[in-house]
Amino acid sequence: QAHPDVVVMLDTHNQLLTQRNDRVEVRFAARFYDASLQYIGKAEGAVAKQLPSVWVHDKAAPEIAAQIEQQRDLQLTALKQFDASLKALVSAGLTAATN
């Protein structure tokens, strides 16, 4: 039977553009617990931005491709924030463990 040192609860949310929605929202969060399920800390990254909606039936391919790239860039920004937050959490944990 497995006995984990750390339990992680991962929460992700990606809301991309649709015909009825012009807001892109991206969130990544990880909550960490020790083997006794005591809260250790949280790493997170989030971005939200309103973008004009572009749809295939009335826009040229370059406009559609540019909008897809904007959404991808927002996802990447949120992931970079998450990564930085995770590194800070790990560094803080290592510092606390060595003191």
From TrEMBL:
It comes from the Bacteria. This is ATPase.
